[in-house]
Design brief:
This protein has 170 residues and is mainly α. The protein has one domain (3-167): Orthogonal Bundle (Hypothetical protein af1432), CATH 1.10.3210.10. Helices cover 75% and strands 2% of the residues. The chain has ten helices and two strands, in the order αββααααααααα.
Length: 170
C-alpha cells in the first residue's frame, strides 16, 4: 500500500468514526477539519513519515469515539497504535488530572509522540477561539512535562508554539 493509500485510509477511518457515526464538530465544521490542520502542521515542519501522518488523523479517535486501541492496531499497525495510545487522554475527574496522567505517558513514548502532541496543540492554538486561553494557562505544565533540550527534531515546533502563545490575545 502506498503512502497516500494509508493516509487516505486513516482519513476515511477518522471521518467514519468522528463525523459520520458521532456527528462530531470542531466549532461549526466537521471534526476532520482539525485533523487536517494537524496534518498540515506536521508537513510544515517537514514531517512526512507515514506513521506520524497516519497517527495524526487517528490521534483523537480512541478518546472521542467508541474505537478501541486494538482496532487501531489491527487496521493501522502497532507503531501507529502506540502513538495514538500515547496521546490519548487518561481518565480523571478534571482536565488538570487527566493531563498530569497523560503527559508522562507521552514523554515515555518518545519524541514522535511528543511531535504528534505538538502538532495537535499547534493546530488547536492556530485555530484560535476560546480554548487558546486554556492552552495558555496549561502551557507551563505542558512544556515542563514534554520539552527536552536534546530533542532537536521538535525544537522548531516548540519555538513556534512559544511564539504563538506569546502573541495570542488571551
Amino acid at each position: 500500500m502506498s503512502l497516500m493509500d494509508i493516509i487516505a485510509a486513516a482519513k476515511s477511518y477518522a471521518t467514519l468514526h468522528h463525523v459520520i457515526r458521532k456527528g462530531q464538530l470542531y466549532g461549526v465544521v466537521p471534526y476532520t477539519h482539525h485533523l487536517d490542520q494537524a496534518d498540515r502542521v506536521l508537513l510544515r515542519f517537514d514531517e512526512d513519515r507515514i506513521v506520524l501522518r497516519t497517527a495524526i488523523w487517528l490521534h483523537d479517535v480512541v478518546e472521542d469515539t467508541d474505537v478501541k486501541l486494538r482496532d487501531i492496531e489491527e487496521n493501522f499497525g502497532e507503531e501507529v497504535a502506540t502513538l495514538v495510545g500515547a496521546v490519548t487522554s487518561e481518565e480523571g475527574p478534571n482536565r488538570r488530572t487527566r493531563n498530569a496522567l497523560t503527559y508522562p505517558k507521552i514523554r515515555t513514548a518518545g519524541p514522535d509522540a511528543v511531535r504528534l502532541k505538538l502538532a495537535d496543540r499547534i493546530a488547536n492554538v492556530e485555530n484560535g477561539g476560546g480554548s487558546v486561553s486554556m492552552y495558555f494557562r496549561e502551557y507551563p505544565d505542558f512544556r515542563h512535562a514534554l520539552f527536552s533540550p536534546v530533542d532537536s527534531l521538535n525544537s522548531s515546533m516548540w519555538g513556534h508554539l512559544d511564539h504563538l502563545l506569546q502573541h495570542k490575545v488571551v
